[in-house]
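User: C-alpha cells for PROLIN-rich signal peptide protein, please.
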Amino acid sequence: MSLFQFRRTRPASGEPLDAAVESATPRRWGRWVLAVLIVAGLHLSAVRWIEHNRQPANAPPEAPPVQVELLTPKPIAPPAPTPPAAPKPAPPKPAAPAPKPAAAPAPAPILTAATPKPDAASLATAPAASASAASAPAQSDQAPASQPAVASGDKFSVPPSGELRYDTLVNGVINQTGTIHWSNDGQHYEMVVSIPVPFVGPFVYSSKGHIHGFGIAPEQYSEQRGRRAADIAIFNRDTKQIVYTKTPQSRPLADGAQDRFSVVMQLASLVRGAPDKYKPGVTRQFSVADNDSNEIWPIETVGDETVQARGGFTTARHFTRLPRKEGDRRKLDIWLAPSIGWLPVRILQTEPNGLQIELLWAGKLATPAPEAHDAASGTQAASEESAPAAPSMPAMDNPADNP
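Assistant: Done. Predicted C-alpha cells:
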C-alpha cells in the first residue's frame, strides 16, 4: 500500500478523509481572497498617494487674464496745419502838418451841358464802399481760424534713408555681415535685405512701393534664397488682389497690407510717430503677405530690454509675434532702439525645428540724410517730439569704419 493510500485511510485527526478535505478547501480560498483584497487596497492607496503628490502643496494661484489693447490698421493722421502768421503792425502815421491859414473859397465850377451832375445814389454808396474795402483784410485774416479740425489717425514717421549693417548669426554662431538697404524720399520707398548663408548663397529679400494713407504700401515683394529663382508677390491695388508667381491662387489685398520685411519698417514708423502708445501688453494686427499666401500677424509689445550688440549695450523695445494659429512654433522677435531712431537693433526668427537666425546691429554704413517732411502725403508725424530724427550712435558704430 502506498503512502498516499495510507494517508487517505489514516487521517491525523481521526476524522474521516472526505470531511477533512472538505473543511480544508474553504480555508484555502478564504486566504487567497483576503490576500487579493489586501493587495488591491495597497494599490489603491498607492494610486491616491501618487495623485495627491503630483501637484505641489503650495501651487501658485492662476494669474488673472491680462486685458491687452488690440490695434488695427487705421489711416495715417496728416500733419497739423501751420498756423497763419500774425499780421504785421501798421506803420505809424506821419505827424499832421501845421494848419495853414484858411484860403479864400474857390469859385464854384461852371456847369456846362457836357459835365454830368453827381446823383444822390452815388454819393450815398461811396462811404459804404470804402468801409467794405477797409474791412476786407480783417476778414481774410480771420478765415484760417474757421477751418475744420484735422481728422484723427495713427501718427506715423517713416525712417530716413540709410544703409544698415548687421551681424548674422545662426544658432548663436556668427557668420558674415548682412545689410539692409533702406531708401525713402517721402513718396516712394525701397528695402533690400541681404543675409549671407554659408555653402548656400545669400538670401535676398526685396520690397518696394510707395507711401500712402495707411503708411508703407508695398507694390512688389521678392524672395530669393541662394541660387534658386526668386518668388515674387505683386500687390495690385486696382483689383484689390495679391498675386504670386509661385502659385496661381490670389488673395484679397487688405488696407495697410505688408510683406514679411516691410512690416518691420511699418512697425518702426508707427513707434516713431507715437512711442508712448506702445506699452507692454499692447498688441497690433498686421496683414502680412508671404511669397504664396497672406495672414494676420498679431505683434505684441513685450517691454524695454537691454540688447548687447557690436560695441556696447543699448535699450530697445521688444516686440514679439504671437502664435498665428494653434500649434504655431515659428517665432519672430524684433527689438527697436530709440537711440538709433527706433530702427531695428535686433531681429530673431526661430524655426519650428529650433533653428535660430539672428540679425544683430553692427553700425550704419552711411549716415542717413535729414528727414524730409512731406505735408502733401501726410506721412510724417505731427510734431518733432513724437518723431525724433534718427541720430547716430557712436557707441554702437563699427570701430573698423572709423579712420
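User: Anything notable?

Assistant: The CA atoms of residues 205 and 223 lie 5 Å apart.
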